[in-house]
Amino acid sequence: MIDAPSSERAASAACIDRPSQAASPRSSLSPLAAELNSCLPVLPVMALQLRNTVREVEDAVVGVCGSFQEIARRAREVVSSGVLCCAASGPGQGGTGVERLIEDTRQTMGRLLQRIEQSSQVSAATVSRLQEIEKRMQGVHETLAEIDRISAQARLLAFNGQLEAARAGEYGAAFGIVATETAKMAQHTVDASKSIRAMIDTLSTNITSGAAELRHRVELDQQEVAGSRSEVTQSLDALAGLHTKFCRAVEETKTNSVQIGEDISQAVVAMQFQDAMSQRMEHVAHTLEEIHGCLQARLTQVDRQDPAADAPAPHDWSERMRDRYTMANEHRTLAAHLGGPGSRDEAVGDNVQLF
Amino acid sequence: MSKMVLVVDDSTSMRQMVSFTMKEAGFEVLEGSNGQDALAQLNGHKVHLVITDLNMPVMDGMSLIRQLRTRPDFKFTPILMLTTESQESKKQEGKAAGATGWIVKPFRPEQLLQVVSKVVH
Q: Which ipTM did the prediction report?
């Protein structure tokens, strides 16, 4: 901003050292001197007020800029975390990480449901086989009935044989033994048939109930598979839809963040008014202090009532201000009110120059 | 590794704005409130770019450039003057002192970065 220190004493000395032109009578200066004496202390206060204002404005601007930076940082963080969620998995790998995950899950669930369906089909095939076995069991029953019929005939035949053997007396004894054994065999056959029938009945009952249970399970499984497939598809579709919306929101946030960045850039440019204002106010404060020092020195001369004292030539204040000014618009303002060049050798055009 | 920029300005807000712009562009930043303070901040750091104001108390930007150019490690370091001063004579003085470029405030961040990209390799 400003590199020259306050120079009241230097200005006073400059005033005293100036060559004299003509002595001014004390009496004619008294009212002016009194007025100057009265207003002189105000000048440093004005300079101080300006500097305090500069400081306060700078503090405020630093705070505002800090807030802008925080806004920019947060916006960037929001975008980064969003982008991480929607991060591209790289070219040729099919969409974002989440999209790929959803697709993988869809395929895994599809395979799982397919396996359940296959198991269900196997169960259905088992039920068919069991039904086939049930039919065969019926065949076995029929065969057993045939065996029973044959056994009954054999027993009747054996009974008749025993009767004929008894009638033949001693000559039929051997035939009687054969008839008796035949009757026993027929009875064994009937017993075996009963036993087989009992086993077949038990087996048949088990197969029937097992088949019914399996059939019921298959139906349930098929219903559940169909329901699950629909639920999984809907859930994954919903998830994919949400993800798409989320990525779109992230993209919008990204765009907004870029806009925020541009807004902040413009705000940064706008906030630089404070630096320019500080310099201008510092130049004003410095000039006020110089005027104060100079006028005080003049008044001291008057108060001494030194008739021999030379009256110094007045300063060229506009030249002093021009020397101090650094900004083109300061020079222009000065020139507009006090004349002289608007600026000494102000460069025009772009504000950037590379050497 | 990030490149280091030394930002020198007696205005806290200007230092803050320039530093923010440079940090956003990926630079690390050292700050000095005047020429003397800037020299003290160097402390062995490798600096790739200096952006300095002209009018500052204690040591102004012109004196800082002259001091830096006497140091072997700053012989080829780009030094940009960022100032409200726009007089051609001052620019020529800056050029003679060893400045690489002159930017008149206010600066636009993208414009500053464009200039920086031309001088920092």
A: 0.90
